[in-house]
Amino acid sequence: MNKTAFTLISSLIVAISLIVAFAIYSITAKGNEEIEKFRAEEIQRLKQYIKDSVDMAYATIENNYKNSMDKVYLEKYYGPRLKNIIDVAETILNSKVQAVKNGKMTLSEAQAEAAAEIKTIRYDNGDGYVWITDTALPYPKMIMHPTEPSLDGQVLDDAKYNCALGKDQNLFTAAVEICQAHGKGFVDYLWPKKTQEGVISDVPKLAYVRLFPEWDWLIGTANYVDDVIIEAIEKSQDDIRKMRYDNGIGSFWISTASKSELKMIVYPNLPSLEEQIIEGKLKKLFESFINVCEKQNGSGFLDYKWPKPTTGGMIEDAPKISYVRLYEPLGWIIGTDVSIDRIDKALAEKQERVEYEEIMIIIKLVSTSLLVIFIFGMLIYMRNRSSNVKEEPEPVEKETAPVEKPTSMDEPMRMTEEIPVLRASPEQGTLRTDECVKMVQEISKTLIAEHAKLLAMALQKAPGAVSNEVKKLANKSIEEVTNRIEGKQEGPIGEPSEETKFKVVTDLNKMVGTINLKE
């Protein structure tokens, strides 16, 4: 086997080593990228999950609040009571009409008595009353108002009455129009409310009015509906306290959205904090929530660390994600949080699967490269053997055979001289096959050693070190393989036994088998 052939083999070893090294580098880099991508996807999935949960809590609060402001809902909620009050007033009017018909009193006397009796009607701790107007348009006249007698006989055209139906319509005109169209109905409007703290302007109110056609009067009563708003707020707080997600683990909290008066409203995990001013480290956290809502159009995520008890009884800061959302009508911030360490288990399982796949690919790659080197070496060996046989003719030994002279003229002459005969020498015309196979064995050992080092570094996630080591191994392998080749060129030529050939192949199979892992 000539030097050129072995140079080709050594060059092939170096080339495949470089290819395998960079393949390992790419595989590990891709594996790391896949793990990071998986982690990012898990965090994004977690964020979307808590966002959807907070949106559900937000929708509950919004639904309760809108119901408290919805006219249809308010009519169902307050309507029966208001109608009952008007029924009482209408009963008084009907009795006076009957008295007039019976001749017991005049119309003016009956109307005066009816107005006086209706004036005394009170409900809702004295805040509820009944008023009477006529049906003149564009502005009716007040006939009787129990709490503001100065209005009696006045045309109700003051601009302060332009507060009805959400479109600044005169509330008394709106009442007349509804009664003329339907005989009765509801009017929603805004009106000042007196409290212990003073007068509150623009408090929502709902009126129920009914036409009394016999006298062309309109009787009405109204109730402040801020009570239902308060009830809606209380209902929302109770709903949020009870709401859970993530198999009962996740819960929600509500705080005020004012830094000047930062108060906890709902906190199921520690109810003692409710209605308390938030202070200390918790205050800084909730101020950060307010900042998120102010900067991100009313909602957003916040990444932070918060103390968490461990199984050993210690406290350590654990990464968390919160999603918060501002409910502007009530000045509330609704939020929830989740620990990121919950994805650690899924991440570890993913990393284990990726590393296993990497190892399997690397093992197949190394095994294939060894097989290619072995086959290439054997092909070189077979080609050189064939060429050596052709280039070195076998020596010729002359043997003489006797030639006899003919005994007669008719017999052909037999030569008694010796005729040269070619005879091959058993020790010539062949190569040292055992030496060539041993050479391939040494080359394979070198390749296995190099790939084992690269595989070890790949499993330790040191791609940079792999690249540097490749250069050292490549230079070293060229020198070692060349020395082995040149040292094996000389020596006696002989044919190895079948037992020797079988032993060499078995050894190669064992070497390749040492790097295969059982799945």
UniProtKB/TrEMBL annotation:
Origin: domain of life = Bacteria
SMART domains with a match to the protein in the record: Cache_2 (SM01049)
Q: Which GO terms of the cellular component aspect does the record hold?
A: plasma membrane
Residues covered by region (Disordered): 389-412
Task: Give the record's keywords alphabetically.
Answer: Cell membrane, Membrane, Transmembrane, Transmembrane helix
State the InterPro entries in the record.
Double_Cache_2 (IPR004010), sCache_2 (IPR033480)
The UniProt record lists the Single Cache domain at: 81-162
**Localization of this protein:** Cell membrane
Annotated membrane-spanning segments are: 359-381
What is the protein name given in its UniProt record?
A: Single Cache domain-containing protein
